[in-house]
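Need a sequence for this fold. Nothing fancy.
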């Protein structure tokens, strides 16, 4: 592990910004896949904030160790982004349902988070969306690795 592992780098900044752009594009692609009555609110902004964190902490910290590691870092960042986005959106939906008193207890609400998450993952199983996320992860990793080699 290099001595600058915990220091901010250009690769961290670039990968987080690229991941945020990817999250915005993916969020816009998700909107038509959801039911018509869905109220999105700050959906895109939450996903962009998560992408900034995942791009910095997951992808950016693993750059600078080679091209294949860069690709792996980009794909890992996208996987982390999808996990946390589905989890937070499921948690929000569960809390919204809990405010409507649809659950009898705490455990029912907590287990419902995972049921909602599975429903969301089934909606996300769209070929075009998966292709954009995979291609975006590859590009984020490759560009981040190039930036790491160029400015480190």
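Here you go.
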């Amino acid at each position: 592990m290099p001595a600058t592992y915990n220091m901010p780098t250009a690769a961290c900044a670039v990968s987080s910004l690229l991941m945020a752009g990817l999250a915005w594009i993916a969020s816009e692609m998700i909107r038509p896949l959801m039911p018509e009555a869905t109220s999105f609110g700050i959906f895109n902004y939450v996903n962009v904030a998560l992408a900034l964190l995942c791009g910095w902490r997951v992808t950016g910290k693993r750059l600078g160790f080679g091209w294949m590691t860069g690709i792996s870092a980009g794909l890992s960042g996208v996987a982390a982004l999808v996990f946390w986005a589905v989890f937070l959106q499921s948690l929000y939906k569960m809390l919204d349902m809990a405010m409507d008193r649809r659950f009898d207890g705490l455990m029912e609400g907590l287990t419902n988070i995972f049921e909602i998450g599975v429903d969301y993952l089934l909606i996300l199983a769209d070929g075009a969306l998966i292709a954009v996320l995979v291609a975006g992860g590859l590009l984020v990793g490759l560009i981040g690795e190039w930036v790491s080699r160029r400015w480190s």
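For context: Residues 8 and 45 are 23 Å apart (CA to CA).
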